[in-house]
TrEMBL record:
Residues 52-240 form the Endonuclease/exonuclease/phosphatase domain. It holds the Pfam family Exo_endo_phos. InterPro entries: DNA/RNA_pol_sf, Endo/exonu/phosph_ase_sf, Endo/exonuclease/phosphatase. Residues 415-437 have a biased composition (Polar residues). It comes from the Eukaryota. SUPFAM superfamilies: DNA/RNA polymerases (SSF56672), DNase I-like (SSF56219). This is Endonuclease/exonuclease/phosphatase domain-containing protein. The lineage of its organism: Eukaryota, Metazoa, Ecdysozoa, Arthropoda, Hexapoda. Residues 406-441 are annotated as: Disordered.
Length: 597
C-alpha cells in the first residue's frame, strides 16, 4: 500500500509545473512572454562547436526580438577552440580541461550584469559544469553531459552532492544538454532516479517537450517561487532546439547599459555660433588641426546623450535587417516541413551542398578568432599592448629597410626583350612563339617634381558628400555624419588646414592616430607577426588623404608614369580588366596559330 502511495506521490510531483511552457518559432517568443522590465532571460543551446555555429546563434538572437541576459552553450568543442569568440555586449567564460573533443560549456553574460560571480564545480561522469551566482538568492548551473555514458547513476549522485551545497539559495536553475531523455512516455528507472534527485531539492522541469528529434535532452529545472515562462524554440543553429527561460525577478539584477546618441540639432546650433576665425589666422597645420579637433570633440561630448533603449529594440547585428529576418522565418518554416516529411525530395534537394555553397560565397565558413592571446605575449597587459603597437608602427619601416638591403646587393633590373625569342630556354625551340613581357617598358617622365595645388571649398565639399557616413569613428569621436551635417560651417576651416598641410609638407600628428584592431591570419596567436592590423582613422584624416591622393594620381596618370599593365589601385581598372586583357591576348594568338608563354 505504501509503495502505491509513494508511486502516486512521485507521479503527481512529475506533473507539477513551475512555469508556463510552450513551443514556438523565434519570432513568436515575445508574443508568448509578458514584457517585464525586471525579467531575467536565459537561453541554453547545444552549439556543436562554438567557432562553427556562433554566427547562427547571432541570427537566432536577433530573431528572438528579446534581449538575452545569459547564454549558456553546450558541446562547444573547446579542445579545438581554446580561444572564445566574442559577442558584442557580452562577457564570456568557459569550463576548463575538456575530457573529449566535444566537451565544454561556455557562458556569455551581459557586461552590464551586476554582482555576478562564476566558478567551475566538479561533476563526475566526465560532465562539464559552470556555476553562475547572480546574488545571494539566485544561482544557475550550466551543464553538458556527453551522451557516451549510458548509465547516469554516478552523474546523478554527483549532482545530488552539488545541490546539497546550494540548498540555501531561494532560486536555483539547472540547465543544459544533459543527454537524459525525460519525455514522459520514455521514462525508465535511471531517468526516474535523475528526476527524483532533482525533485528532492525542489527542482522541477519547466518543460518536457522534445529538443532533439523526439527526445527531451536539453533541460531547464527550476526551484523558485517567482513567475516564470519557458519556451522550446525551433532553432536551426544545430539539430538541437534552443530552450529559453524568462524569470520575473521583481528586482534590478541588471545594471542597464546606456546607448549614446548625439543631439545633432543642438550640436549644429553650437557649431554655427562658434567663431572659427582664430583657426583661419594660424599658419601651423599642427596647431590649426588641434584647435579644430579639440573644439569639435568638446561639442560632440557636450551633446552626446546616454539613453536606455528598450531591451527589445537594441540592435545586435546591424546587417540583420527586417527583410532578412522574414527570409529566416521562411527558411525555418521550410525546415519544419522537412522534419515532418523527410522523404519529400522537393524539400530536401541536396540542402547540404546548397548551404556549403552559401557559406563559401559569404565567407562564413571561416571561424572568427579573437586577438586575446596578444595580451599574453609580454609579462604584463600594458607591456603586451606597447609591444604590439610598436610592432605595427614600425612594420612599414622594417619592410622598407629589408627591401633596400636586398636591392643594394641582389636586385638586377630586367630589361625589355628586343625579340620574341629572347630569354627562352636554349634547349627548346618554338615556332611562331609570342612572349608576354613581364616587365613592360615604362615611359620616362621629363617632369621631375609634383606640384601640390591648393584645394578649393568645392573640392572639399565634393569629398565630404561622397564619403560614407556609416564608418567606424576614430579616437576623436568626430564622425563623418557630424561633418556632413555641419559642412557649411566646417568646409572653410577644413580647406584651410588641408592647404596648410600641402604648403608645409606636414601631415598633422592628431590625424595620424588610429585605433588598431589586430586580425588573426595564421600561426602562433601570441606572435604579432601573425596578425594584420586594421586601423580606424579619424574622419578628418580621410579627407586630407583624398586631397593628396587625387593630386598624386593625377600626376602619375597625366604623364604616364605608371605601367599600362598595372590594374590595381587605379580608377576605372580592376582585376576583371586584367583577366580580360590576358584572356583576350591568349585567345587572339591561339586563333592566329601561335603559342603563348
Amino acid at each position: 500500500m505504501n509503495n502505491i502511495l509513494n508511486k502516486t506521490l512521485l507521479d503527481n510531483i512529475d506533473n507539477i509545473s513551475n512555469s508556463i511552457s510552450f513551443v514556438c518559432d523565434p519570432h513568436e517568443v515575445r508574443a508568448q512572454i509578458p514584457s517585464h522590465d525586471k525579467a531575467l532571460n536565459i537561453l541554453t543551446q547545444n552549439i556543436c562547436s562554438v567557432s562553427a555555429n556562433l554566427s547562427g546563434l547571432e541570427v537566432l538572437m536577433s530573431s528572438l526580438d528579446i534581449e538575452l541576459d545569459i547564454i549558456i552553450l553546450t558541446e562547444c568543442w573547446l579542445s579545438k577552440n581554446p580561444y572564445l569568440p566574442s559577442l558584442q555586449g557580452y562577457t564570456s567564460q568557459s569550463s576548463t580541461s575538456p575530457v573529449n573533443q566535444n566537451d565544454g560549456v561556455i557562458v556569455y553574460y551581459k557586461t552590464s550584469l551586476a554582482g555576478i560571480s562564476i566558478s567551475e564545480p566538479t561533476i563526475i561522469d566526465d560532465a562539464s559544469c559552470i556555476l553562475i551566482q547572480l546574488d545571494k538568492e539566485t544561482v544557475i548551473l550550466g551543464i553538458y553531459r556527453p551522451c557516451t555514458f549510458r548509465n547516469h547513476h554516478r552523474f546523478t549522485q554527483s549532482l545530488n552532492l552539488l545541490l546539497q551545497n546550494l540548498r540555501h539559495f531561494k532560486n536555483i536553475i539547472v540547465l543544459g544538454d544533459i543527454n537524459i531523455d525525460i519525455t514522459p512516455s520514455r521514462l525508465d528507472e535511471d531517468n526516474d532516479d535523475y528526476l527524483d534527485i532533482l525533485a528532492l531539492h525542489g527542482l522541477l522541469p519547466t518543460h518536457t517537450y522534445p529538443t532533439r528529434k523526439t527526445a527531451c535532452l536539453d533541460h531547464i529545472f527550476l526551484k523558485s517561487s517567482l513567475p516564470a515562462h519557458s519556451a522550446v524554440v525551433n532553432s536551426t543553429v544545430t539539430d538541437h532546439k534552443a530552450v529559453l527561460l524568462s524569470l520575473n525577478t521583481n528586482k534590478n539584477l541588471l545594471s542597464t547599459s546606456p546607448v549614446t546618441r548625439i543631439d545633432h540639432t543642438g550640436l549644429t546650433v553650437d557649431i554655427n555660433s562658434i567663431d572659427f576665425s582664430p583657426i583661419l589666422s594660424v599658419s601651423d597645420p599642427e596647431i590649426a588641426t588641434n584647435l579644430l579637433v579639440f573644439t569639435l570633440r568638446s561639442l560632440v561630448s557636450k551633446h552626446s546623450i546616454s539613453k536606455t533603449a528598450p531591451r527589445r529594440r537594441r540592435i545586435l547585428k546591424p546587417w540583420i535587417t527586417q527583410g532578412l529576418l522574414r527570409c529566416i522565418r521562411n527558411r525555418n518554416n521550410l525546415y519544419k516541413k522537412l522534419m515532418k516529411n523527410q522523404t519529400n525530395e522537393n524539400l530536401r534537394n541536396n540542402s547540404k551542398s546548397l548551404w556549403n555553397a552559401i557559406k563559401n560565397v559569404t565567407n562564413s565558413s571561416k571561424p572568427t578568432t579573437p586577438a586575446n592571446p596578444l595580451l599574453t605575449c609580454m609579462s604584463t597587459i600594458n607591456g603586451s599592448l606597447d609591444h604590439v603597437n610598436s610592432h605595427f608602427v614600425n612594420m612599414g619601416k622594417s619592410l622598407a629597410e629589408n627591401l633596400n638591403k636586398n636591392n643594394s646587393s641582389n636586385l638586377i633590373l630586367p630589361q625589355p626583350s628586343s625579340s620574341p625569342k629572347q630569354n627562352l630556354p636554349q634547349n627548346r625551340s618554338f615556332s611562331n612563339a609570342t612572349k608576354i613581357n613581364p616587365t613592360p617598358k615604362i615611359k620616362p617622365s621629363t617632369h621631375k617634381s609634383l606640384v601640390l595645388l591648393h584645394a578649393t571649398d568645392e573640392e572639399i565639399e565634393n569629398i565630404i558628400n561622397t564619403s560614407r557616413e556609416n564608418c567606424a569613428v576614430g579616437w576623436d569621436n568626430i564622425s563623418m555624419s557630424v561633418i556632413k551635417r555641419n559642412k557649411r560651417s566646417l568646409i572653410p576651416i577644413i580647406t584651410h588646414i588641408c592647404n596648410l598641410s600641402l604648403s608645409t609638407g606636414i601631415f598633422p600628428t592628431s590625424l595620424k592616430k588610429a585605433l588598431v584592431h589586430p586580425i588573426y591570419k595564421a600561426g602562433d596567436r601570441s606572435d604579432p607577426n601573425n596578425y594584420r592590423p586594421i586601423s580606424i582613422l579619424p574622419a578628418l584624416s580621410k579627407i586630407l588623404e583624398r586631397v593628396i591622393n587625387s593630386r598624386l594620381t593625377s600626376f602619375l596618370e597625366t604623364f604616364s608614369i605608371l605601367a599600362d599593365n598595372q590594374h590595381g589601385f587605379r580608377h576605372g581598372r580592376s582585376t576583371d580588366g586584367a583577366v580580360l586583357e590576358l584572356t583576350d591576348f591568349v585567345a587572339r594568338n591561339l586563333d592566329a596559330g601561335n603559342k603563348c608563354l
